[in-house]
Amino acid sequence: MSASQPDHYATLGVLRDATQEEIKRAYLEAAQRLHPDKNVAAGETELFLGIQQAYEILSNPKRRAQYDATLPPEAPIDNKFIRHEVYFSRPSLVQVKEDQLLYILLEIEPSAKQSGSLPAPPLNLCLVLDRSTSMQGDKMDILKATAVQLMRALRPQDVLSIVAFSDRAEVVVPASINLDRRKQENSIQMMHPSGGTEIYQGLEAGMREIRRTLDPSRVNHIILLTDGETYGDEQDCLLLAEEAARQNVGITGMGIGSEWNDIFLDALAGRTGGSSVYITEPRDIEKFLVDKFKSLTSTYADEVLLEFKEQERVRLNFAFRLQPEGGQIETNSPLHLGPILRDAPLHILLELVVTPGALEEGDVLLLDGNLKASVVSQPLPVPPIRVRLKREVFLEPKAEPPPTRVLKALSRLTLYRMQERAQSAASQGRYDEAAKHLQNLATHLLSQGETGVAKTAMLEAQNLENRRAWSASGSKDIKYKTRALLLGSGKEKTS
Amino acid sequence: MIICSNCKHANMTGALFCAECGAQLIGRDTLTTQSIATENLKTASRRTTGEMSQPVEGDNAWANLHLLDTGQVLPLSSRNEFTMGRISEGQPIMPDIDLSPYQAYAAGVSRLHAVIRRTGVTVVFMDLGSANGTFINGNRLTPNTEETLKHGDILALGKMRIQVLIDKK
After folding, report:
1. Residue B38 maps to which CATH number?
2. Domain containing A41 — which CATH number?
3. How close B61 comes to chain A (CA, Å)?
């Protein structure tokens, strides 16, 4: 192959062993970004033609085989956009006749060259706001004021739409680039709380607005803000979130007060690699929204996926995002790992269970898959990074201590998981067990100097023992406070 | 399988923290004090039943602390005074030598337990008002009073036994 011949695999951003299915998907995604009908920037039409040509060759098995024959042997791809670092809790596995655990800390960040030079990406943001009766008063007033503030803070290239919902939804501010801002501010002020809470209505209208200006070179994101439980439409919401994930639209859930369903909001946001946020006091609404807005504008890659082959003998037991936003990740392939921010790399902790069956032949293949990042403001697809993690097996355990960063992350995560155990015990009516977990948790929190959260845990343990119930906001307080501790440990590591 | 020393819960091999009570299962604290050069830290092999092996001493050290329970040797060099204790989070004054990787908590070592100091050719040792006391060859020290150490003396910080090896060079 001459040096000038393009590498069609790199053009489409697929690996050499990609299936026809994957090639087709990659082509459709790239074509959507770069289609000449979309008035793309100068020079992108050539990129589009390159993709066209690559697809024509690779989609035809015969031509692909001919082309493959001309390729030099595959060199390890040097990924220009992201780099990743892997830390294991142990250097090797032990030959034992029972299941064993292994932790993997995955750190993914922009490669040094790229992060500084890129312009901040434009936003395509939709606020989906609960305007049910319960939002009356402070909450609604602060929400309106913040929405207006965000409107004014927009850069010319940003799009902000606002949808309000109760048991139906209406568009308050449509998604559009040139708007009469004063008129929009008036419509924000006109929002009037009444009715119930049906999140699906709001989300669906929000998705409609997002789609109007949907563009892969923007950060497409929905912020759902609610203070109540939705009734009966959880399943539909989750399906909608999955669709959002496919179109690269992120969702963040924000819950105000103590009435909303944190498990549902976490699951909803988790489908897109986002997570939920707990706002205790209405006056904090502004801070959380403005912070979220800022972190969205510093997005480097809006979603990182980890596709892997699920194996019988090595099980992924648990996956957790430590930063930029703490949250549990569902363990089905592909994992929605979440966004990479310019200033906050993505840190993921995986817990693997290795069964004795896996130890039979030499090295154990723990994880076989690839990392896919969609880097904003990068027109061409980013080639996936192959991740094949292996460990040797020895008869005796090695005395080498785990890396400090793994230990540190895990010590905080252990606290979060104890809290989860308490929640699940309490929800099954085993209150004494839950109280015991909370007391344990409090002890560890105290020894780590987290007296505030420890006190909350102690109080709730008492509540569970005496009244067989959490206090109104207790379970959420503990969950989100222990989760916030994780972020602390993440930041220390990057410094 | 790893049995948690705190709650006796049986954890899977490879676990770092007890799934039941959250206690750390491996003897290593995340915050080890860094004033001792770790590359000089050599592990002395431990033989069976009481018979003590000759530990490897660190180079350039004016004294070495041989931890009898775990077998490590900590060389003391680069400065003339080392406070000993265990680091836990949120503690204002850190000891120079953190013994928490060697099960200091279980042995009853205080956060700021004792200090070892070189004055000219002699090495002195002082208890800093520890909760479980400090002993030289089995005799309890009066807090905040200096005692001179000889080569081979056995110190006990709570239940943690340490042999002092004073360099003759």
Report:
1. 2.60.200.20
2. 1.10.287.110
3. 25
